[in-house]
Amino acid sequence: MTQVTTSRRLPDVASPGIADARLLPDPDLAESWAAIVLPDGMKGEMARSAIASTRLRSAVPFDELPLHGVLLLSGPPGVGKTTVARGLADKVARTLTGEPWVFVEIDPHGLASSALGRSQRAVEQLMGTQLDELAQAGPLVVLIDEVETLFTNRAALSMETNPIDVHRAVDAGLVGLDRLARRHTNVLIIATTNFADAIDPALSSRADRVFTVPLPDASARREILERTIAAVAAAFPGAESLLAPEVLDTAAEVAEGLDGRQLRKAVAAACSVRPGAQGDPDRVTPADLLDVLRSRGGWA
Amino acid sequence: MSVIVRTVPSTPIRTSVQTWETIVGLLTEAGQEAQAKLTAVTGVAATLIAEEYTSLAPIVVKPARGERVRIYTAHGALALEGEEPPPLATWPLVEAGWSLSLPCAAEDIDEMRDLLEKHPEIEVRDLADGITAAAAPACASAPGTFTINYDELERP
Fold first, then answer.
1. Over 60: is that where the pLDDT of B7 sits?
2. Res B104: pLDDT
3. Over the stretch A63-109, which tens digit does the pLDDT of each residue have?
4. Cβ distance A242 to A229 under 8 Å?
């Protein structure tokens, strides 16, 4: 990792609402970007959107072009939204160089409290103080995973559950978001969700771009399986038989409808499905993999 | 120029000396030259905190570059109800050229100045003196001065 001389200080990951914080670029996040398989061109478009948004916001007044620097990634679980979001943060920092970037991942669950008013204060503290000051010190990428937890659709709340605190917390989050957007042009917010309908429309309308990440197609499934098997075979050479082109083609065909996470776990499951292999990955066979993919038992 | 504000709960949550140590920890990290300089004036700072002057007027930190930091202390019920201050986004004293101003009652100023004579970065001021207000600019952070690496952008 490049040694950065900076007075910038990372927030404490033990503080409420902060799940991760690091200086960018970061090799782990670069690996995330390289590892994730998305439909043709989607990763490139995400990167261009982030770069264009940052450049436009630094040059065009907000009132003329109200960009909030928010990219929203939605899609079913397991397709790699969080992984690509983390990788995208690194990609932006490697592309827009000159100042060190800070990456902060928000844990929305850490902001929720059953005490009245506590959630709102936690959101205000995070958005209005911590993120605002971090942005003041230099460029910043914020990842809000499972964003529907923080920006819950207020119209869908049951009045029987006393949702006042949730209302206030969402209000505080939106105010904080607007404040960040207006005060700082060097902030990029990447939000992910499995439940696009559960997000408050006020957040969706603030997103500069919404990317819907689909389940992998046959080509992507093949690539995911190949990468995963190659990683296993690097440690257990006996698994190399699974890398035969005809095996990968058939496996990708059989695995239709599975997400990336399920595909990777299928490779692990194949190592244990047959009693005779005794859980030894060196003894996994193409038939084991195809059996697991066809049966989808216990892991999908 | 904008200002960052923190309030540190003091007595009875922590003693005056512990309050100053908390403030030092907020501003500097271990091994930093400025930390030793701040620690060297613990006696003076803790005295001013014990007098609760720092609840009436802030400790003002002026970094060589970047935003000023104002630090208040809370005492009594306010300390009990207060929350711990979140860390700053920077280490403001990492670069030489900083200064720190402590509030003090007029009658004690001369004595405190004598005690701080060998500490040029640290001063006391009359707590009745006003503080220059800095209006928050429309855009708090400077627009990014980025260089675009198109090769990196095109790399898969």
1. yes
2. 95
3. 999 999 999 999 999 899 999 999 999 999 999 998 889 999 998 88
4. yes
DSSP letter string, A154-167: GGG--GGG-THHHH
Question: Pick from A272, A204, A198, A199: which is nearest to A232 by CA?
Answer: A272
Q: State the virtual CA torsion across B33, B35, B37, B43 in degrees, nearest 10.
A: -170
Alpha-carbon A59 to chain mean position? 28
Helices (H), A114-190: 118-123, 132-137, 164-183
Confidence of residue B141 (pLDDT cuts 50, 70, 90): low
Q: Give the Cα separation of A272 and A282 in Å (integer).
A: 11
Q: Which residue, among B84, B13, B83, B89, has the nearest Cα to B49 in the 3D structure?
A: B13
Q: What is the mean pLDDT of residues B62-68?
A: 89
Q: Tokens at residue A190, please?
A: 């990447």
Cβ B139–A182 below 8 Å, yes or no? Answer: yes
Interface touch B87/A185, C-beta < 8 Å: no
Q: How far is B85 from chain A (nearest CA, A)?
A: 10
- What is the value of pTM for the model shown? 0.79
Question: Hunting for tokens 């205000």 — which residue is that?
Answer: A124
Asked whether the predicted pLDDT for residue B133 surpasses 60, the reply is: no
Closest listed residue to residue B126, CA positions, set B65, B43, B48, B38: B48
Determine, for residues B143 and A185 on separate chains, whether the beta-carbon distance falls below 8 Å: yes
| B2 at interface of A, judged by CB pairs closer than 8 A | yes
ipTM at complex level: 0.78
- In whole angstroms, give the CA distance from residue B57 to residue A230: 64
**DSSP code at position B90:** B
Residue A125: its chain B contacts at CB < 8 A?
83, 86
The tokens for A134 are 């971090």
